[in-house]
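Our consortium's second objective concerns turning raw sequence data into structural hypotheses that experimental partners can test. To show how far this objective has progressed, the report includes one record in full. It was chosen at random from the queue rather than selected for favorable results. The single chain below, 294 residues long, was entered without modification.
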Amino acid sequence: MEECLNSNNRMLKNILVTGANGQLGNEMRVVAAMQTDVVYHFTDVAELDICDQEAIERFVVEHAIDCIVNCAAYTNVNKAEEDTELCDKLNHQAPANLARVAAKHDAALIHVSTDYVFNGQHYKPYCEDDETCPNSVYGATKLAGEEAITAICPNSVIIRTAWLYSTFGNNFVKTMLRLGAERDELGVVFDQVGTPTYARDLARAIQCIIYKGIVPGIYHYSNEGVCSWYDFTKMIFALGGITTCALKPLHTEEYPTPAARPHYSVLDKTKIKQTYDIEVPYWVDSLRECIGSL
């Protein structure tokens, strides 16, 4: 691979990954295991509390960190509606802490955000400069985190993603496989449209950004294609060999949740593909790879 350079042409050799026990963090471990020329430091809250700016600074100095990859977040979208303080602490204040330390020590920052910064009322794939308008606490705190990073750390990349799933942790794919095996019938929303994202594909994209060099800005990344949650589940069942559970399409109002979900959250990936020459896999192909691993 090419040398990994930041915008100041310094090689990025020491990488700090936060939230390393989550879906994306664990997938970062998988892709990092195939590298020998970059040193990754994987941390979760037990090793590094990113709500503690002084602790972040000590870690960055001690390990001569060149780039921080922030995979940590508060992701319980429904619970966030009542757990607003903790959600803001993890999605807004903690990324701001990382940005301050990165800026002070001339390190790069790669931060993962969400499609929830949009209200889902669009009719075409969202571009990075489309107007943000979150309609949930989760989305609002993630947007606040984006804005803090942009204001504080000029050498930063923000990647918005959507519908993340993985071989690790709890996620929609694993839940549907379990419920499909347990039930005779299952109702799934058909009028919310987006694109699933295999976390390993996103991890590979982040690895590519580290190698090819930080080009600051906001980017969108999900797999290619479009589907509803109903379509997604249909394919999960097909690839998972589930044949005894009947799927019933539901309107959103038939499945009320505390947090509003975007009805349309397809992301336009043109910018990240052109900037980093990234080839984005089709969502069905990636789902097949994931289920094969499971």
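The partners drew two points from this record. The chain has a mean pLDDT of 95. The radius of gyration is 19 Å. Both points have been shared with the crystallography group to help prioritize constructs.
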